[in-house]
Amino acid sequence: MPRSTHYLLIAVLLVSGSATAQMQRERAETWDVGLYVMNSGSLSLSGEENSRLNIDSEYGWGFWGNYNFTNRFALGFDFNWVRPDYDATFVPENDPTSPVTISHQLSIFSIQGKGTFHFVEGPISPYIEGGFGWTNVDSNVAEGPPTTGCWWDPWWGYICRPFFSTYSESLTSYSLAGGLRWDVNETYGLRASYGVLELDTSSRTENASFDMWRVDFSWRF
């Protein structure tokens, strides 16, 4: 191979290395925002007097934002929403030998503050992240008769509609995940991860722990 070709290859490698290093430096003091698709795993919980809750696996969506303090460390927020099917078995107090099972759909949404650590400063890096926040679980089952509310609407005029109060609760939640990040260029990126979302239900039964698989698409600015 001619010596001039060697010099050309060395120059290309140096330029490529410089461009990569520039990309690494630019992650610090920037923002990332992203959208993702997730899959929450199935879950079975046992309660008092043989009551039971079985939740199916389901796909959901979410969005997140991070501020990169350095090339490796970021803090931000995460929001997600999923509506899995479930079967709930209740045991009537006056007839414990005749349990009742209903099938419906939960509405689960979580909002958490999160910290993320990247093991490598380059555009392809494994990472871990942990979160703390709140998760609201709504059974979508009415807890009593409806109430009617009325109001004036600027378009439709005077409107009256019934409203149902449902069995729901907000719980403290924790999350831990590990994954791989790929900065495709200085603006767009991809992430894939596996983690666990744990809801603090210890006052009633064992904690609810969901497996969470997700794929993210992100923008950096």
Q: Let me know the largest β-sheet.
A: 8 strands, antiparallel, barrel
Tell me the structural class.
Answer: mainly beta
At the first level of CATH, what is the class?
Mainly Beta
Question: What is Rg?
Answer: 25 Å
Shape: globular
Q: Summarize the amount of helix as a percent range.
A: 10-25%
Task: Indicate the low-confidence ranges by residue numbers.
Answer: 4-24
Looking at how many chains there are and whether they match, the oligomeric state comes to single chain
Q: Output the number of helix runs.
A: 1
Second-tier CATH architecture = Beta Barrel
Mean pLDDT, to the nearest integer, reads 85
In words, what does this structure look like?
The chain has 221 residues and is mostly beta strands. It has a single domain (3-220), classed as Beta Barrel (Porin), CATH 2.40.160.20. The protein is built from one helix and 14 strands, in the order αββββββββββββββ. It has one helix at residues 3-27; strands at 30-40, 43-46, 52-55, 58-68, 73-82, 85-90, 100-105, 107-118, 124-142, 147-153, 157-163, 166-183, 188-199, 208-220. The strands form three sheets. Strands 1-4-5-8-9-12-13-14 form an eight-stranded antiparallel beta barrel. The longest helix is centred in the N-terminal third of the chain and has 25 residues, at 3-27. The model is unreliable at 4-24 (pLDDT under 50).
